[in-house]
UniProtKB/TrEMBL annotation:
<dbReference type="InterPro" id="IPR003439">
    <property type="entry name" value="ABC_transporter-like_ATP-bd"/>
</dbReference>
<feature type="domain" description="ABC transporter">
    <location>
        <begin position="4"/>
        <end position="270"/>
    </location>
</feature>
<comment type="similarity">
    <text>Belongs to the ABC transporter superfamily.</text>
</comment>
<dbReference type="GO" id="GO:0016887">
    <property type="term" value="F:ATP hydrolysis activity"/>
</dbReference>
<dbReference type="GO" id="GO:0055085">
    <property type="term" value="P:transmembrane transport"/>
</dbReference>
<keyword id="KW-0813">Transport</keyword>
<keyword id="KW-0472">Membrane</keyword>
<dbReference type="GO" id="GO:0015833">
    <property type="term" value="P:peptide transport"/>
</dbReference>
<keyword id="KW-0547">Nucleotide-binding</keyword>
<protein>
    <submittedName>
        <fullName>ABC transporter ATP-binding protein</fullName>
    </submittedName>
</protein>
<dbReference type="Pfam" id="PF00005">
    <property type="entry name" value="ABC_tran"/>
</dbReference>
<dbReference type="GO" id="GO:0005886">
    <property type="term" value="C:plasma membrane"/>
</dbReference>
<dbReference type="InterPro" id="IPR027417">
    <property type="entry name" value="P-loop_NTPase"/>
</dbReference>
<dbReference type="InterPro" id="IPR017871">
    <property type="entry name" value="ABC_transporter-like_CS"/>
</dbReference>
<dbReference type="InterPro" id="IPR003593">
    <property type="entry name" value="AAA+_ATPase"/>
</dbReference>
<keyword id="KW-0067">ATP-binding</keyword>
<keyword id="KW-1003">Cell membrane</keyword>
Length: 295
């Protein structure tokens, strides 16, 4: 059984203009230990695919027209909201783009991490090293200890005292580490990361990618990494899925797809990446390519 098995996922969204189909039959299988990069131009449906797996799309305006999302054999599209809340934060971790909007500025880092640890602990006390009968006080103490360990595991020095800082006392890279710690606190089996390094400068971006790579190797989890950046994919992904207008055009091991792209769109996408040798005016755009050329 695959860790995550998305089959023929079709999603439409309603807006004031009417209902539009956004995902046109997504198929994707992620096993433990794999880091899947999902690339594609803006609006191709990457984020809505990730949000579907986390079941964070409200229905309405969203509507699933067909398909299933099997997570460890359970169809997430048929899972109750209550069960989904328990899965998120425990079995499915999430990291989103901008750490400034995902950390609450008025609460200490520790308060926010402890909240997440307590949520995961309520679902499964073993995450905090406790049994179900543990007292409230035990839960609180264990959640704080787990929060400090989580900060240490993402490389925050002096975690035991930094945990009482406020978000503004952390740099952008450190805040993103906190969000990774938060996503990993429940010891998830699957991590969904949507543009986790886009807001960071290049050297911090590389550190964060290295950290995600290390966590995957250490904990043998599966990752869906959504990005518009092929450089990020080449750096840490084992596999890649190329999206275009709500469809996956091409998917497979990263070396195969990037070295021998079988699709004209993937080729065009690769050619559009600037290199140090690209001269001004040489950049290739993707405009003018219609989806009919590819599907
Ligand atoms: N709430 C919504 N209601 C209606 N349409 C939406 C909604 N959210 C997204 N869409 C549309 O769905 C399409 C896919 O959006 P999505 O955010 O998944 O793209 P993306 O590939 O992640 O793009 P980006 O790289 O810009 O984040 C877009 O055309 C977008 O306009």
């Amino acid at each position: 059984m695959a860790l995550l098995d998305i089959t023929d996922l079709q999603l439409s969204m309603k807006s004031y203009e009417g209902e539009t189909q956004i995902l046109h039959g997504i198929n994707l299988k992620i096993e433990r230990g794999e880091i899947w990069g999902m690339v594609g131009e803006t609006g191709s449906g990457k984020s809505l695919t990730g949000l579907s797996v986390s079941r964070l799309i409200s229905t309405p305006p969203g509507r699933y027209l067909a398909g299933s999302i099997q997570f460890q054999g359970k169809d997430l599209l048929k899972t109750s909201d209550r069960e989904m809340r328990a899965l998120r934060g425990r079995h499915i971790g999430m990291i989103f783009q901008d750490p400034t909007t995902n950390l609450n500025p008025v609460f200490r880092i520790g308060t926010q991490l402890v909240d997440v640890a307590l949520h995961a602990g309520r679902t499964d006390p073993s995450v905090l090293g406790l049994s179900a009968g543990a007292s409230r006080r035990d839960f609180k103490a264990a959640a704080r200890k787990t929060a400090i360990e989580a900060l240490e595991s993402v490389g925050i020095p002096d975690a035991a005292s930094r945990i009482d800082d406020y978000p503004h006392q952390f740099s952008g890279g450190m805040r993103q580490r906190v969000l990774i710690a938060m996503a990993m606190i429940g010891k998830p089996d699957l991590l969904i990361a949507d543009e986790p390094t886009t807001a960071l400068d290049v050297s911090v971006q590389a550190q964060i990618l290295r950290l995600i790579h290390e966590l995957v190797a250490e904990r043998n989890i599966g990752v869906l990494l959504i990005t518009h950046n092929l450089g990020v994919v080449a750096q840490i992904c084992s596999h890649v899925a190329v999206m275009y207008r709500g469809r996956i055009l091409e998917a497979g091991p990263v070396l195969d797809v990037l070295k021998r792209p079988s699709h004209a769109y993937t080729q065009a996408l690769l050619e559009s990446v600037p290199t140090v040798h690209t001269r001004r005016g040489e950049l290739r755009g993707l405009s003018g390519l219609s989806p009919e050329m590819f599907v």
